């Protein structure tokens, strides 16, 4: 390449820059055609380019630099070179008018980008293990739910097998036929279900499947989609609480709490039931401060509701716990008095633990 450029310069200086190529001149190089990789991974969606892939801090910094360069181009100014911003652009005092305006626009664009950027929920299959039972053998997938741009000290996680995903896919296709038409799902195989290659492909397919479902608002809010994530945990936590295994139940209630928080359903009846489970288990384990906090959070959610089956039990538990930990209980006592005047005697209402045990989780 360098020899060919030097040859052209010599020809131009020699006065024959307009002549055509000679017979002995080297042929120009053809640019290689860009090849497109075909993804033949079973069950991967062609409409969804990818889901969660953890990147290093260096990669994240590179992405931020590219976005900042794009911002400068949109504002009609070239991006400042790295390490030479003051030298090239100057300070606001040295460059009147235009430089100051450009900097202000850039800062405004960066602030608006950070404030308006939607927070995505990402799904990552972190592990897959083959489970053998007496009459069956299946793969158990562990999926983490992670909010983009945040670090979760205690991540929300679920474990599901292929039949769970298949049941969810079947239920959603019955209800959302049009929306589900373009969503791929890995098909069943008659053999080689437990090879590393098949498990890896299905893990990737399940990540894309969940991400694609979550991107559709109607599906994201549907009971079928939500219950896929936390209904099993709620049932398990309820069983553990009923049998007095409060420490194990507490961990399961806490994971159900995180799952509902990631999915954005912290005002539902299931979430109130989760707070009741946390409060009961914390109280049974003599963690009164944590139990009091759960009751306070539930009462904040019930603030606008005049009546709710759990309002009386939460108020009674909150008054009792506030007295134990030395917190103010006057507001809860006033609300209890209002309930006494408006409804049946509170002595006939079940306690928070009784409500928790009797609540059917279908």
Percent range of helical residues: 40-55%
- Beta-strand proportion: 5-15%
What is the molecular shape?
Answer: globular
Query: What structural category arises from helix and sheet content?
Result: mainly alpha
Count the beta strands. Answer: 3
Averaging pLDDT over every residue, what do you get?
Answer: 76
> Cα-atom Rg, whole angstroms?
31 Å
**What is the number of helical segments per DSSP (H or I, 4+ residues)?**
15
Q: Which strands sit side by side, in order, in the main sheet? A: 1-2-3
Order of helices and strands: HHHHEEEHHHHHHHHHHH
Instruction: Characterize the biggest β-sheet.
Output: 3 strands, antiparallel
- Please mark out the parts with pLDDT under 50 across 5 or more consecutive residues, or reply none: 16-23, 26-41, 45-98, 112-118
Distance, first to last CA? 72 Å
What does this molecule look like?
The structure is a single chain. With 362 residues, this protein is mainly α. The longest helix is centred in the middle third of the chain and has 20 residues, at 223-242. It has helices at residues 2-13, 57-74, 85-89, 98-116, 162-175, 177-180, 196-214, 217-220, 223-242, 246-263, 269-284, 288-301, 311-325, 330-342, 352-358; strands at 121-132, 137-147, 156-161. Strands 1-2-3 form a three-stranded antiparallel β-sheet. Helix 9 (223-242) runs parallel beside helix 11 (269-284) and helix 10 (246-263) packs antiparallel against helix 11 (269-284).
């Amino acid at each position: 390449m360098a020899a060919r450029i030097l040859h052209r310069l010599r020809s131009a200086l020699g006065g024959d820059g307009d002549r055509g190529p000679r017979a002995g001149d080297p042929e120009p190089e053809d640019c290689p055609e860009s090849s497109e990789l075909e993804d033949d991974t079973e069950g991967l969606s062609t409409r969804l380019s990818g889901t969660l892939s953890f990147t290093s801090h260096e990669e994240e910094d590179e992405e931020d630099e590219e976005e900042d360069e794009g911002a400068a181009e949109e504002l009609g100014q070239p991006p400042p070179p790295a390490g030479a911003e003051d030298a090239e652009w100057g300070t606001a005092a040295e460059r009147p008018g235009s430089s100051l305006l450009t900097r202000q626009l850039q800062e405004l664009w960066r602030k608006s980008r950070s404030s308006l950027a939607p927070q995505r929920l990402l799904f990552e299959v972190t592990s897959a293990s083959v489970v053998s039972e007496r009459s069956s053998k299946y793969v158990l997938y562990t999926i983490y739910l992670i909010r983009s741009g945040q670090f979760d000290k205690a991540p929300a996680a679920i474990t599901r097998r292929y039949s769970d995903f298949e049941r969810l896919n079947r239920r959603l296709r019955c209800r959302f036929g049009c929306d589900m038409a373009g969503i791929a799902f890995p098909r069943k195989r008659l053999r080689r279900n437990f090879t590393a290659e098949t498990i890896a492909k299905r893990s990737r397919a399940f990540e894309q499947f969940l991400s694609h479902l979550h991107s559709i608002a109607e599906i994201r809010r549907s009971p079928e989609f939500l219950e896929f994530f936390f209904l099993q945990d709620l049932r398990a936590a309820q069983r553990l609480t009923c049998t007095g295994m409060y420490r194990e139940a507490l961990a399961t209630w806490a994971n159900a709490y995180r799952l509902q928080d990631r999915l954005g359903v912290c005002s539902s009846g299931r979430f109130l039931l989760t707070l009741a489970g946390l409060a009961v288990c914390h109280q049974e384990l003599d963690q009164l401060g944590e139990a009091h906090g759960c009751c306070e959070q539930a009462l904040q959610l019930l603030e606008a509701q005049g009546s709710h089956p759990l309002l009386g039990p939460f108020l009674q538990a909150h008054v009792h716990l506030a007295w134990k930990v030395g917190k103010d209980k006057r507001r809860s006592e006033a609300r209890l008095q209002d309930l006494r005047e408006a409804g049946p005697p509170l002595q006939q209402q079940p306690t928070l633990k009784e409500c928790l045990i009797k609540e059917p989780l279908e």
